[in-house]
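Re: duplicated header lines in exported structure tokens

Our pipeline writes sequence and tokens for each protein into one text file. With two proteins the header for the second block appears twice in some exports. Here is an export where it did not happen, for reference. First protein block:
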Amino acid sequence: QVQLVESGGGLVQPGGSLRLSCVASGSIFSINCMGWYRQAPGKERELVAISTSGCRPAYVDSVKGRFTRSRDNDKNTVYLQRDSLEPEDTDVYYCNANVRSWSAYSGSNYWGKGTLVNISS
């Protein structure tokens, strides 16, 4: 099995900084794509940021320019960072990855359990 574990959520004041981490572990042969989604109560889950190269299919980030992503391929880790947070950034953030395991010959999508980010004073 492949597992995705998010960390870094919690209570952050408006204007503060956000840095989330997602680590993929398990029977991993290769990671084709990793990215971040968010979901507010009563809303649909939406894309925040992805690593464009290697991601199939490609998606447009609806909040491009507000969030920054980075990736450490050797550690199977992806990050999400933003400064000057706003109350509307309050959401549950989910990590997503398309991963090929050692026992498979194609990739499958996996989701983390999510981490809550609450922007409030």
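Second protein block, exported in the same file:
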Amino acid sequence: QVQLVESGGGLVQAGGSLRLFCAASGRTFGNYGMAWFRQAPGKDREFVAGISRDGSLSGYGGSVKGRFTISRVNVKNTLSLQMNSLKPEDTGIYFCAQSRNTGYSSSTSAIEYWGRGTQVTVST
């Protein structure tokens, strides 16, 4: 079974930057699309960014496009999310996720494995 462990969360001021990391176990990391989702208390889990298995395709939620960058290094089983120009509305728990196929999806139903999440808090 795949295990995903996020790190890099913390408290930053609006306008600042933060970089999240996801370490994955298993030998098939490079066969699947990956994604980042986030969730605030009492709210639905929201798609943030996704990337295809080889990194050639990526997509972003409209609220983060132009500010966040997703990347992966398959030989190291790692996924990253560079977050710039952070806003208070970016606050939430950020989850690393592995898709059921080679692509990525903005839907949680397409996710097979989830990390436990890392907290990101952006102050005004």
